[in-house]
Amino acid sequence: MKKNRVFGGVLLVSGTAIGAGMIALPVTSGSGGLVPTLILLLSCWLYMTTTAFLFLEATLWLERDVNIVTMAEHTLGWVGKIISWFLYLFLLYSLTTAYLSGCGAIFINSIQAWAGILLPQWAGPIPFLILFGLCIYLGTRPSDYINRALMLGLVLTYSVLGAKLTPKIQGNYLLHSDWKLIWPSIAIMVTSFGYHIIIPSLSYYLGYRKDLLKKTLIWGSLLPLFVYVLFEVLVLGVVPFGGLHGLVALSHSTHPEVDLISTININAGGSNIGEVLRFFVYFAILTSFLGVSLSLHDFLADGLKIEKTSKGRFFLTLITFLPPLCFALFFPNVFVSALKFGAIFVAALLGILPAVMVWSGRYKLKMENKFRVIGGKGVLVGVILISLIVIVMDVIDQI
Prior knowledge:
Layout: H1 2-17, H2 20-29, H3 34-60, H4 68-115, H5 126-138, H6 140-165, H7 186-192, H8 199-205, H9 210-238, H10 247-251, H11 256-268, H12 271-304, H13 310-330, H14 335-364, H15 376-398
Helix pairs in contact: 1-6, 1-9, 1-12, 2-7, 2-12, 3-9, 3-14, 4-12, 4-13, 4-14, 5-13, 6-12, 7-14, 11-12, 12-13, 14-15
């Protein structure tokens, strides 16, 4: 049972990370070239893995079915509670908005391609809202099994995609390198490793066993890194830098989640690749959608002190999905913008806040350490400084 839950936990972590951000990675980083992209990806993985373990350290101090609001209040007082509320809501609602917008756009495009019917924009997110609303209402265990099915679909379509695109790779495309063009992609890269929000729910699911949790976080974070690297190689090796159907043109698309499919299909020269890509993008977004929605649901239950009765779960599900649905309906072209905007809150909530909570818990409150991240105060200061740099760069890019 423990091995089964660790396996499920690894898939929940990787599924939460692998999502809409993955689809946006080659769109935002492609202009910089493969080598700068891989170096920056590895750096972002190391930074986000460190902050994840800080998050875990703070989580294990409480060992209760709580979320980041209670953790921040326990270590930082009412100020920490208010800040965490603000950051968490903005982050998760930004991500959920991006997922609903992305799924909705792809669904409308799919129906038009398969049946020749152009649905209104408001109809796109509805099927996914119903499906995931039911999953989140039922709780963590059913969501775990649904996530496993989605991850299986992701792995299968990814494998087929790799087999079809590898022979199409142009070696000279991978030689392009321009460090000046890579920095705007930091926001998407950081967001793409933002699985931390699932840690409190995961800790409860794994019985607060630090050995199981460490193993789960390490393997769960390495899997997205591996997937991202291969996906970048495939896309940057098939799609040229310039031209009407190149990476530069794709980076200016209003619906990159849809245009990525047609761009790769055109450059790879095969309609079957386009269909595989369509399902791959679906699975990639849906796995992350599930993890983020589950975390938001548990966060609201903890922050609002709502009991998970039938009525309580229905109300929690409603307030989990209604705000992002409204944003997705009124602003249907916010896919990349919502992800980049969310990076500001990723760096603040998943970078600065856990470092500050651990600092307070270790050195001010003298809390008992059942698990401690190595490096002492130097690591905490480094994490805070890097987080501030990410925020400043993202703000500059948004201006």
